Automatic annotation (TrEMBL):
Protein name listed in UniProt: Enoyl reductase (ER) domain-containing protein
Enoyl reductase (ER) domain boundaries: 63-404
A single Gene Ontology CC term: mitochondrion
PANTHER family the record matches: QUINONE OXIDOREDUCTASE-LIKE PROTEIN 2, SHORT-CHAIN DEHYDROGENASE/REDUCTASE
Molecular function terms from GO: oxidoreductase activity; zinc ion binding
PROSITE patterns reported for this sequence: QOR_ZETA_CRYSTAL
TM stretches of this protein: none
């Protein structure tokens, strides 16, 4: 997903380009061919359950480019794709954006009106390539990617921001479940930043969450041992199932799942480590905000990778818990390497690292039999149920990913092929 400077600015413009719609209709419009449904917010919300899809103009290459010109943003230096979206995934960041409490709300990137959504899978319906550059995508190609404004029926996006399905074994529903803005975060954190190696032990916090369920599987695929933590009892079974040996049905020695909402969970982690002769974990993957306690069960010269603060930050509907403060002597005494990982910023500043990361991830996802299993809490049929998925995530009921099926895959392909046939007929008539 590496992008040049032009495409970076294009991606930053997508959400506000969607906001250029002057007219938003709540009921079905008379001319539905020019309108589509989207989770389009005219303002930030107080209650997620009140969010409903609206009708906004369908995106076109012309409207997309016009919006960039109006905002004096760079025009694309690469092909653009018009995509029929089949699936979109709900992320914790969606809740923050909807309530207006994310740093990107304050920076001006997500200023109402805008369309929610960060991940999608779908089918290419058209390609815009005025400079005849090399483009490996054609109408009918199945893809997945990350962008702004994906909770919609259609999307215009730079070709560099999408990927083909890893192999024929993967469906559009499957790749939506691993998420182009989810599994790459965990893969990059564990490989590029932590340098996790076979034989090491990793502690994965929020192991049943969107990032966590894939961090667990990536670590196992790399040959590491995994100790996962969860915040509630009902999520333990999800992680235990991922850890079970497929032949014996048992969780291997030195691995397990611990509830971090209970006092003293650090001692349980150390006890599991001792089963394999270690005095602590080699790596911690923290997306919750548990650095201080994690250091207590980290071995000397261990690494702690911070990739989020989901357990510390509210979503606007409740008070925000203060971020933890750490006495630096704790880091010194164990010679801990405290590392941060911000996936989006890495893509912008170090695109070559992101390219290398995707190469490694694609190789892992392409293995047969599959070493990564999609973990789906529930699939919601239609954008009108996206609010239910967001509410479930807010209440911390979701494990893995909550998916919204925007359009049935077969129906989406039928529409794309029909549109392509009509376009070809019109072109022939002009000749």
């Amino acid at each position: 997903m590496a992008k040049d400077d032009g495409s970076l600015n294009i991606n930053r413009a997508i959400c506000n380009a969607a906001g250029d719609a002057e007219r938003v209709e709540m009921s079905a419009p008379a001319d539905s061919s020019r309108m589509m449904q989207a989770i389009f917010l005219k303002d930030h919300v107080k209650r997620l359950i009140d969010i409903q899809p609206s009708y906004i103009p369908r995106p076109t290459f012309e409207s997309y480019l016009s919006s960039l010109r109006e905002k004096k943003r760079p025009l694309p230096r690469e092909p653009l794709l018009h995509v029929k979206i089949t699936h979109t995934a709900i992320n914790h960041v969606d809740l923050l954006y909807a309530h207006g409490v994310h740093q990107n709300n304050k920076s001006g990137l997500f200023v109402p009106p805008f369309t929610l959504g960060l991940e999608f899978s779908g089918i290419v319906s058209d390609v815009y390539n005025p400079q005849n550059q090399a483009c490996h995508f054609r109408p009918g190609d199945k893809i997945w990617g990350g962008s702004i404004g994906t909770h919609a029926e259609e999307l215009v996006i730079p070709a560099s921001a999408v990927h083909r399905l890893p192999s024929p074994l993967w469906s559009l529903h499957d790749v939506a479940a691993i998420g182009a803005g989810t599994i790459p975060v965990s893969y990059g954190a564990l490989t590029t930043i932590a340098g996790l190696k076979a034989g090491e032990v990793i502690l994965v916090h929020a192991a049943a969450g969107g990032l966590g369920v894939y961090a667990v599987q990536i670590a196992r695929a790399l040959g590491a041992k995994v100790i996962g933590t969860v915040g509630s009892q009902h999520k333990m079974a999800v992680v235990e199932e991922l850890l079970r040996d497929p032949q014996t049905g048992r969780i291997p020695k030195g691995e397990g799942v611990i509830n971090y909402s209970k006092d003293g969970w650090e001692k349980e982690v150390v006890a599991l480590c001792k089963q394999t002769g270690k005095d602590g974990v080699d790596v911690v993957y923290d997306t919750v905000g548990l650095v201080l306690k994690s250091i207590r069960c980290t071995t000397f010269n261990g690494r702690v990778v911070v990739a989020g603060f989901a357990g510390r930050t509210g979503t606007g509907a409740e008070a925000v818990e203060e971020l933890e403060k750490i006495a630096v002597n704790r880091i010194l005494l164990k010679q801990i390497k405290l590392l941060g990982y911000r996936f989006g910023e890495t893509s912008r500043r170090l695109p070559h690292e992101t390219v290398k990361m995707w190469q490694g991830l694609d190789e892992m996802l392409s293995k047969e039999p599959r070493v990564i299993k999609p973990v789906v809490y529930q699939t919601y049929k239609g954008l009108n149920h996206a609010n239910e998925a967001m509410e479930a995530l807010h209440k911390r009921q979701v494990f893995g990913k909550a998916i919204v099926e925007v359009c049935d895959e077969e129906e989406a392909m039928r529409q794309v092929l029909q549109r392509s046939k009509q376009a070809s007929t019109t072109f022939s008539a002009r000749l």
